[in-house]
Specification:
heterodimer; A: about 400 residues; alpha/beta; Rossmann fold; formyl-coa transferase, domain 3; 2 domains; six-stranded parallel β-sheet; three-stranded antiparallel β-sheet; about 35% helix; about 15% strand; B: about 400 residues; elongated; disordered N terminus
Chain lengths: ~400, ~400
Amino acid sequence: MSDLPLQGIRVIDLGHEWACPHTARFLADFGAQVIKIEYQKRLDFLRGGITMNRAYNRKVAFWQVHRNKQSLTLDLRDPLEKDLFEQLVSQSDIVLENSRPGVFDRLGLGYARLRELRPDIILVSMSAFGRTGPEAHYRGYGGTIEALAGIQSLTGYGPDQPARRIREMDVTNGIMGAAAALTALIARQRTGQGDWVDLSEMESASHALMGEHLMDYAVNGTHFVLRGNRHPEFAPQGCYPCFGENAWLVLTVQTDTEWRCLCQAINQPELATDSRLTSAEGRHEHHDEIDRNISEWSCSRTPMEATEILQASGIAAGPVLSMLELTKDEHLHQRDYYQHLESSPEEGRYLGFPLRLSRGNGRLLTRGPDLGAHNRDIVVGLLGLSEARIPTIDESKLGTSFEPI
Amino acid sequence: MARGAGFPEADQFVNEGMLSHLRVLDCSFGIAGPYGTRLMAGFGADTIKIEPPRTGDPQRHRGPFHRGQPGLERSLSFHWLNGGKRGVTLDLSHSRAPELVRSLIATADILVESFEPGALERWGFGIDALHAINPGLILISISDFGQTGPRRHWKATEIVHYAMSGAMSLTGDRDRPPLNSGPAITHYTAGLHAYLAALLAYQRRQRDGIGEWVDVSIQESALENVEIKLAEALLANHDAIRNGDSHALVPWECYPTADGAAAIIAGPLRNWSQGASALGDPEMLEPPFTTITGRIAHRQEVHARVRAALAGKSKREIYHRGQEAGLAFGYLASLAEALQSPQHEQRGFFQLTATHPEVGQLVSMAAPFQSAWHRWHLGRAPQLGEHNAAVYGALGHSPATLSELEDIGAL
């Protein structure tokens, strides 16, 4: 096995919440040394709202999103600790941040300053709206972005039903942030030049989720119609009740041949010869009736039993898996998807990696670090400074992201 | 392209893209692979899309179509996903394919494919054969459930992936069936990971010149979207449930206004006292509503007060007032409203493609993130086989050979 792809790349993660930390997590999973900067007066949102008994070190969400990272506590308003940060920048390749535009400029740590410290530094600035434009100073969470970008308007049970969220814009934007960092890194190899990447989460999520829909409206003026679980072209497509509590199956019939196979599979061969239903157009017209026929068949089978019958008949189908069902999924198990921490395998399983590289994949070394766990390693070990410079943690003064400071 | 104020002037803006030293072959189809390679093309890589002769990428047959009329060159999703690429045809299963494939592979850095697992190998283009031609080649294989495992030959569509990657169990209302995502999120997520996979492998190749093979399973890739909830299931045995759009924090969802829905997202939590004044209900600034624990304990009352406060107001008014007061309010925008966003407009996010012979210019999106120095290549999607002569010609295949291969159906 060869070195990890990002071996030797040092990343400073100034992110908070989820999107930017996800970017940093991806880079850490594939070998970058990622140092998460933590602010004691306002701990990361995923560290929770409680500081008693060091509860902030025991949040599963933090363990996942900050896995493979190191934790360094710094107050960037303190001149000595700001100096530590600057020394760290001079030895780093990439700085990631998702504060509102201008926050780091006001700290005297904008791109211009970072370049003085490290001429080929890559700064990825992720913000809700981008660093220019009339709304650049506005704030945004996933719920803001999903609504304003028009993404939320695409999901709902039917034409007269309220829009529903699909959530997790943060992950989409976090993945895009990783794309930004790696693209700039590869450009730097050729040009020797760093970059300051402006990632607007509104733009990034729009780009990564709704291009064909925006184009359709812009070109044709067609207003998007909510269809619930149905497909604009294929029929039938839907979500059907199965045997068991909250047990559901989904399927899509993509061709007329598949339709005839479905009729056999659900023991209703007479539907295959029903002339009203031979084309997708006809099946759309009688979708309710078809749905009743499928439900009648599915409701006495478990989602996986039904799926296996349908897949064997060449039909795209699958169970709606809950989080706990996913943890027991046989296919993922056989592919060794889930991972144990190399540092402490007994602690349980984590998500694996979203892709598999044949020359050695990502590694899961450690869970999200305890607060300030690497203060000494970084200040003394990496920067070569005296012990006196190690930032200390005053537990009586810790604050969280949940309340005013 | 919008530029930041106070940006350093010392360096020169360059015309070439961030990846303009890369050559990419794209024989993927549908959404996932083409989106990944669309990004490569946009960042400047010379991206050659390889399609089956005559029928092309199946996405050419998927609506919506330009002016509602189907046609090989009219699918808007195809146009969106394949902008900036060159296009050639080639039947990879044809007995004469290898002579062309060899020359393409010899000059490529990255090959992206999304055939059924095993198909490439069957046609003689497995990873070993490819590396015999070009040891530096990076092969990205995208598939529904991965190259291995008992379900590697299962069929899947977007709704199947949304269901099997967990997110669907959490989308929609508790007393109704799980709800599919409007956006093709699992395919786009896989496309992004295919893009990242290519760059990771390229980064490693810089050290020793050796390429590799990447297995991107759409299902596994999409699990990232529920990473926190899945981690909580794995490590705390917690099963998240479907619960409409209700959020652990409150208020943190859409509420009706006089002219649509406003997203009352009351974060950052530390700004509640200044920001909630935008709602115009003075009692919301008093206990028990001043802390998030208090608001959660009085969830129904918070909902009722927010609804009352928004009655008669316009969604844009409340959006701007909330934002100016420090909270991340928004409103539920239609596609029409999203296209008219002043923010998008000022940043030049929506741009016209280059002129396509059949459909002309189309409104598309600029880069998903902006480099300070490098341009995004918007371009347009290629016509089927448009660059056969240019691409194959440059690789040394004579017009006579190409015409013969065309006659026998190889391209």
